[in-house]
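User: My collaborator sent over this chain with a note saying "see what the structure looks like." That's all I know about it. Can you take a look?
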Amino acid sequence: MTAEDSDAQGGTVRLRKGVSVIGLGNWGSSLAAAAVGSGIPLVEVVVRKASSRRRFGAVAVRILRDAALDAEVLWICVPDGEIAVVAEAIVARRVSLQGQIVVHSSGALTVAALETAKRAGARVGGIAPVFSFPTQEPVSLNGVLFAVEAAPAVWRKLGSLVKSLGGRPFQISSETKVLYHAAATMSSPLMVSALDAAVATAKLAGLKSSDAEAVVGVLATATLGNYFEKGSERSFSGAFARGDVETVELHLRALLAHRTLNDVYAALARNAVASLPVRRRRQLERLLRIHRVQGGVRN
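Assistant: Without extra context I'll predict from the sequence alone. Here is the result:
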């Protein structure tokens, strides 16, 4: 890499190998802690507005206007809508990013969000952790999957960085990245939504909250274990697998008075009928079409 670079005043700045973490939310906190714990040189931790007294090893948190931004890798860890703004702020401070790599951690946005940094000479990439970071309490990255979007030469560098953090990198293309993120969303937050809908439906049957959660928890935990151990076909059971059309119709009728829960059930039912080993498929398809026409599910 280029050892030296010019700053905004035209002077010469020597780049430091290592990582600067820009943004100290839930994910940034885990990344900074993991860098220190894994021995990766953490050059700076940078925030845009308020300063923080937090430290990561010997590294204190700096406000962006005071940051050197001279690390080899500038890793932006801010919400998706702020990535391009932060990239522009970095370029305004540095002017030239020759020899540096600028990455963001969005699972949905591509490297196009870093176009400003690319025009300033940086190589760019995206590194999205396949994990949940619900609080600022640092989470271990050992064994965590990371979707890495970058050109081949940069991918090798970023893949090595992920491995040093304890993670497991896999390559994702810019063209299909948003579909990966949709899958990830269905796997975590929308799974929580589906489970919440199941608990709400159980409570409509008169179960108290603790009993409703226990019923859903037993079934969901067993199903998840079976799915990843045995596959979808061998973990799929119940009314749809048996082709109990009459039972499914009873479910749909009972849920008509509860529109959101009805929509959730009907959408999951259509996917089950389309892609899983159901019996009496044609009859179930017909039932779901009729239900939709009758207003059970709205476009």
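A starting point for your reply to your collaborator: The domain at 4-173 is CATH 3.40.50.720 (Rossmann fold).
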